[in-house]
Amino acid sequence: MSEFLQHLINMLVLGGTYALLGIGLTLIFGIMNVVNFTHGVLYTFGAYIMFIVVHQLGVNFFLALPLAVLAGWLLGAAIELTLLRPLRGSDIDTTMLVMIGAWIAMQSGALWIWGGVAKSVTTPFPEAPLVLGPVSVSWLRLFVLAAAAMLIVVTYLLINRTKLGCAMRATFQDQDTASLMGVNVDLIYTSTFAIGSSLAAAAGALLGPVYVIFPQMGDLAAVKAFAIVILGGLGNITGAVIGGFILALAEELGAGYVSSGYRDAMGFLIIIAVLIFKPTGLFARSERVG
Amino acid sequence: MRSGIAILTIVAFASVPLWLRDPYLMNALITTGIFIIGAMSLNLLLGFTGQLSLGHIAFFGIGAYVSALTSLGFDVGLPFGFRIVHVPWPPIVGFVLAIVVAGLCGYLVGLLSFRVRGAYFVIVTISFAEVVRLVALNWVELTQGPLALTNIPSITIGLPGLGDLTLRTKLQNYYLVLAVAVVTYVLISRLVHSHFGRAMRGLMENETLAVSVGIDVTRTLTLAAVISAGIAGAAGSLYAHYIRIIDPEVFAFINTVTMVIMVITGGKGSLAGPVVGGMIFGLLPVFLRPIMAPEAQWIAYGGVLIVILFVLPRGIVPSLALRFRKPKSRAETLAPVAFSERDAKEHA
Q: Can you tell me the mean pLDDT for A121-129?
């Protein structure tokens, strides 16, 4: 039983960051109809910004986090402006392939600049974990969970309570009508991509210090994000949050009770299972693409 | 005219070993040839049905593993105390089995994923490849996991009256790959000019219209997936018996991306496209290796993919063909696949 409780605790920590990844992707997927293959690179990017800011610039760990989010936002905006805006209106396959090209180039760029050797970020948290009866959890992981939860709430409020969020939701529902009502669709697209990218960077900045940082770390993160989005339903933020926690639970239980070698297979199996049994996602509200 | 170019090309390729003695270049040509076969099979799906399979390397890898295991033999335990013991069979049987098993996997993936389209199909195929990679990595008893399958025998061909010929040298493997590539090209060419090929293109151009004239969508797409996967499996088998060592890294996503870049650069939906794109991207590393680090090369490939999509979205071959095409010949020949009615109108 205590083992199961421990898995649940781990699930909460993982699930928070997975939810961040999923929200970012589901926003971009849902509003822009772009399969964003650079999502994983942004995750890697956030982690490396964390490393650079903490270790090479000597900035405080807690200050580094918002910097990583900001850097992700800027890179996302740059990708949207240079690659996606000229392709507005082309078919989904073309944008998908362009995003694959960007992903390959940027990931290889990370490998070129920072090398393939894994790096780790030192954190100000004590080594000794917090012990709560039968389970224990490190302070760092608790902080990750808290920060992820905060970012999820902020994003939720941004989408549901602000004017920008309202315009984003309008664009998601009907781009032409939104445009007729005076919504600047170009601005919405850039904002959406930048916000989604900054969330991926935030997830990387949070999980990077928990594990190690290496250029390919984003690949699995990207596919996990796809799994979460498919699970939660396209463009559905609440679905992405729940999907993030479901995926984390499946991974924890799979690693704990089946075989740790298949931990990362859970995301893929979930994708395949969902598409067979409930292709609209578990919490679908909206129409599907394609 | 067209067949003349084809024969000239084949003769040119066949003459390469006569003047090229560099073993490193020969090796590059052989692996390029194998990847071109893979790219041709990818083109069948991407270019002629419009479905982007980003898990294509799975079929290639499955072909490689099936062929290797058939010719090496294995002894695996199954649940409930069953064991499967397989004594080695000749590699040529492995080649055939590779096609069959990869084709079956293509059938399964097609059956599952053609209920969904577009982005979802892409993600299903990626997931499939990744699951297969994890199985290859973790089912150590069968696949040796990261330790790799080694000492895979070379392909032996029985020649009537001459006994068995084991294809060990680069020269022999070069001609084997060339022969399979030519057969693949002819097969795909016949296929896309057949009734089935027109059904595929009809689906790609306008699915609703295709359905209304009685084309069975799922059947057509699944059949295309089976053939495409089978060809990729054949390429994988050639790879296994040529390289003679296979590890789960064969399933790396980057290999699928290589094939995709080959198809897109050369021109999707054009028969010669994957060949042209494949020659460029197969041999580019050879020339770039002295001047660029591998990481820098990959940055360049990513950049080239983006630039090609912006500048030549149709790819090299269809763009060239459109430029050199005489207005007369457009009317008299059956429009080669890439130039659909829509394209023709755009350029008219």
A: 83
